[in-house]
Hints:
alpha+beta; elongated; five-stranded antiparallel beta sheet
Amino acid sequence: xxxxxxxxxxxxxxxxxxxxxxxxxxxxxxxxxxxxxxxxxxxxxxxxxxxxxxxxxxxxxxxxxxxxxxxxxxxxxxxxxxxxxxxxxxxxxxxxxxxxxxxxxxxxxxxxxxxxxxxxxxxxxxxxxxxxxxxxxxx
Length: 139
């Protein structure tokens, strides 16, 4: 597979339990590597933990690894998390305004639709875990 089709992050193995490996990665904003970040409050770094199936490869706690995901999976995840709910929200909002529903009613229905959407994502999280798979490599 071409390297341009993959997204990878370096991380450190935090725990190993059977075939499941918990990897800690540092996700940083685009400006985190900027030399002027000390004078700017925009730079941001956040530690994230990712659960990865090791497929019978031996890993030890503290080992440096690379976590990999296909770019298409990442784009699909962004669409599910942000693009679809935004489109749904706007369609409901504009439709209800066109139907002369009160602003309070529009707000309640729009917010409830978002709660329902994200609740459905939560209900189907096990199916989504199977679709969005991370791979792990030793460095």
